[in-house]
Amino acid sequence: MSDLFTAEEHDDEPSAPKSARRRHAPLAVRMRPQTLDEVVGQQHLLSEGSPLRVLVQGSSGPAGPSSVILYGPPGTGKTTVAHVIARGGTRKFVELSAIRAGVKDVRRVMDQALEDRDLRGLTTVLFLDEIHRFNKAQQDALLPGVENGWVILVAATTENPSFSVVAPLLSRSLLLTLTSLTREDLSGLIDRALAAEHGLDGSFSLEDAAREHILRVSGGDARRVLTTLEAAAAVAAGRDSDTVTTADAEQAADFAVQRYDKDGDQHYDIISAFIKSLRGSDVDAALHYLARMIVAGEDPRFIARRLIIAAGEEVAMADPTALQSAVAAAEAVQLIGMPEARILLAQATVHIATAPKSNASYKALDAAIADVRSGKGGPVPPHLRDAHYSGAQRLGHGKDYAYAHDQPHHVAAQQYPPDDLMGVDYYSPTQNGNERAVAERLQRLRGIIREHS
Question: Which pairs count as long-range contacts for 379-382, CB under 8 Å and 24+ apart, including other chains?
Answer without folding.
Answer: 379/418, 380/418, 381/415, 381/416, 381/418, 381/419
